[in-house]
């Protein structure tokens, strides 16, 4: 556990029954505790789960770059890339490979921001098993058991439990 930020990203696909837009979520940890998180509906409908996850990764990447900048500003400069974890192999491969042009040519330019940051080494994207992706809690309804597991992984406790 260090002060280096580590992020988890996730998305549902077409989860809003009215608009069919997806929800992106991310959470960043430092020293084992969550320091930044978000859950937000995507601005347009994604044509596939891979696209929805790719957009979620790009939003998380923007936060990763901001966190890195903030840490530098307060003299906690971090060497090396911020690790960003996602559970969709297709979206992860899109962050590194621009050869699949037909699959991504319709995606908004701002969502390709992550490719630049991966190419420059500011962010490293890796895969994590879905069951260990704590960002799931920000994007979809979970069973009670899985929700409790994710809350534990997020290190959230009731005040009366004295989790600190």
TrEMBL record:
Organism name: Lentinula edodes
The protein's name in its UniProt record: Retrovirus-related pol polyprotein
CDD domains (alphabetical): RNase_HI_RT_Ty1 (cd09272)
